[in-house]
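User: Hey, quick favor. My workstation is busy. Could you predict this chain's structure for me?
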Amino acid sequence: MKSIPMMELHGSTESHTDNNIKTTDSTCPYCGVGCGVTAKVQMGSLGQKVTITGNIHHPANFGKLCIKGSNLADTLGLESRVLQPMLGRKAQRQISDWDTVTTKIAEQFQHCIDEYGRESVAFYVSGQLLTEDYYVANKFVKGYLGTANIDTNSRLCMSSAVAAHKRAFGEDIVPASYQDFEHTDMVVLVGSNTAWCHPVLYQRIMRAKEERDLFVVVIDPRFTATCEAADLHLPILIGQDVALFNGLLQYLYQNGKADVNFVTMHTQGLTAALDSSHSESSIYDVAQKTGISLEKLELFYQKFTQTEKVMTLFSMGVNQSSQGVNKANSIINCHLLTGKIGKLGAAPFSMTGQPNAMGGREVGGLANMLAAHMEIENPKHQQLVQEFWKSPYIAQKAGLKAVDLFEAVESGRIKAIWIMATNPVVSLPNADQVKRALEKCEFVVMSDICAETDTTQYADVLLPALAWGEKEGTVTNSERRISRQNAFLAVPEQCKADWWSISQVAKKMGFDGFDFTSSHDIFKEHAQLSAYQNVQPIDRTDDSIFRYFNLSGLTDLSITDYQNLAPIQWPVWSSEQKEDAVARLYADGHFSHADGKAKFIATSVVDPVHQTDSEYPLILNTGRIRDQWHTMTRTGLSANLSTHKAEPYCEVHPQDALKFGLKDTELVEVKSAWGSCVLRVVLSDKIRRGQVFASIHWTEQTASDARIGKVVNPVVDAISGEPEFKHTPVIIQPFYTQWQGVLYVRQGFEHYTKNAVDKMVWWTKIITAKATRYELADRRKISATTEKLKELLAFEDESFEWLNVEDPSAYISHNIVLRDGILIASLYIAPKALLPDRDWIASLFKRERLSAMHRKALLAGQPMSMGNSEGALVCSCFKVGKNRMIETIKAKNITDEKQVTACLKAGGNCGSCLPEIRGLIKICQMEARL
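Assistant: No problem, here it is.
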């Protein structure tokens, strides 16, 4: 039965007694917050209606969802799916069957191993995989193929945090829980636009701030939505986090704020850490290095010094750096010095970007790890894992990390690669190098749900994987909480779980140990390995292979218990373990290093590898936006999620725009030594001069030239291998075109316009409720005549009715295409300021027929009764724009976002827009004072 996606706003309920409704609890497939969701599938005469709401019982979110989670039902259709196994690269691709393709993979892998050795085969997987899929992939590669050449896109977001945890604690552990943000007195958000990237946790922090005296600090080069409600914003120079926290370490020590007993009893290495940070012993020097004013710096240092309960949340702005590991360790050092760890409301907290980045870490998903938190180059750990797996070979050295892995593909050292649930041609730095590598690779296998991505075109074998809503398994969120992802949709006939496809290949290569019949079988084995020769802290000895990661209490789960597994944090030492038993670790001061002590890590400030110069004078910073996810293969299907930030854009400071000849909303080419792309200019005084910001989401499927990964430099952290996404020297320059335009075409008729779009020098694609919108620009001096446009748009048969008005000399042309009175397409070519309101045009496609007045309005390019435009959308849930919001704030003299919600409903559902509403209130208040 075809899915008919329909979104239901948070808070609504369905009857559990209706036999036509199936209710299933699951976990959101987006960020690392790991929100619980409830899916309801109602069968009807038109098919099935799916609604998604927050699960009020899930401890990660208690029913709250962000805008992406609220719109999950929009992403469940089959239109973009891979539905059968396929053989051959894009141009020659043919439908095949599972027996044929798994046999081919097995034979090709064996050929490569026999001919070139074990290191010639590699996997590149994803934090989107369930733990069970991740486990089987790592068992197959590291325990049977005998290589550690399996890495993950999680390398790009949290591997620096992993390395920092292991250096400091002896194990990759986030020692606190989300509860701690509700009990702390100070929250420091470092390199994290939490309001947009982890909205539910951000709203949880904001509720705590409303209820008590909570001091919030945001450390970010940009003034983001997260800063709107902060007590202090530190606009740090990009890359200077080590200097900032080394300075804090010195300040704490100099002011006698070390927890002497904790440091003496439970840590090592303080002297070396202090020596390495000596150049930051003067707060004046730190202010100069970081670009933060002395007044703000002193306030931050004083507050941290005076506050017992401090939570420091750090994310991509820390991790995605050539100094990412040292940045994270410099933060952890400050918590160790003051004993702010293992206590209620006090800890460093790494926030992951993907739904199962932590689950992947548990099973050894990175190339330099073994399963169950064991070390890949430790002979005792190798022996233990090989013994448990009964495997013929075990990897004995770290494999190639993501960037190095694809360089090895291009150089020919890797002959075969299997890519799962990720899109590296878009997401990796120096992304055109990845494209070259896959073009040259002898054998590329891809498991995906999307038929057309920038990466699938290079697949020699394309496998149809299960999507969210079809999969069964577990994920682990940023607070170590394991939750179930449950299936609630019928599985397309030929789509298979990733663990199943790997197991089939393993068996065809002659390997035992892959006779799994369900995800339950895999989870039990995963739990058993975590407990194998592992003890509880109280029983630890010098010879123990001790890890806090231990699922002993889950090793005997029945299939029913597994299906009904409630969210639980690890370690799980007992089947009777209470929910809050391990909300925080290290309260007793016992860490995972062999001596039980934490380690201070000596960190020193190192300049970025690539500096700005006369050729590339600006620094490019990249990141996410509020309503999109990764490369938009899921969120791009939802019209609701395309309304907030519809086009790929580049934030530029107004003075830099003046210097480089740029105008607001015009096009700009962003160019580095590695590549270039074309984006829409957004002028912003919330970014420093000398810096530009671009979002990561757009692909060749959604824009002609907006893959920012092409521009990003491939430098990585020497320890973690995580790329430097926050500091690439670039130049910006106007991207000149003769004209710009906007094309709308009703869904189902896009093939009539493909020729026109492909011929444009620049375009971007936006999904709306009933039509696809294209923003266009071109350099050709095309005469805007009806005949020429008909050639381009291909609505040539007599069933279509054309309406057209034009002024070719001014490059103005308004064109409307109808069939049986229904609006099929509209194309406007004009100076950008004269192009019509996009939301108004989109609304006309929702009408079954157009009146004569509507036709006249469309030809005129504006409504006949001109009301005030909504302006840029702020609230996606209730479709409230910036202009209406400002009018309401001013008219009613609003001073609080709750008043806006009361008047307009905006902010009353998912809450993702609340930071922007706060910002608009501030702007209105400032204007009123002038």
